[in-house]
Amino acid sequence: MYTTINEDGVLNNYATEPQMYYAEYPAIWEQRKYLVQGIFASLIVTTLTLVALTVS
After folding, report:
1. Which pTM was predicted?
2. What is the DSSP string of 1-56?
């Protein structure tokens, strides 16, 4: 932790910044997993919307 003291004696604490890194492009199996998750989420939203419309 990085600490400074101003002329009035007040302490200022600064958090240490994490090391930066670049994200890597997802592998083909990760892309397929994202596609399946998107389809599943779309089905849930569609089902909830249809149930809400049917009940009202």
Report:
1. 0.57
2. -EEEE-TT--EEEEPPPPPP-PPPPPPHHHHHHHHHHHHHHHHHHHHHHHHHHHH-
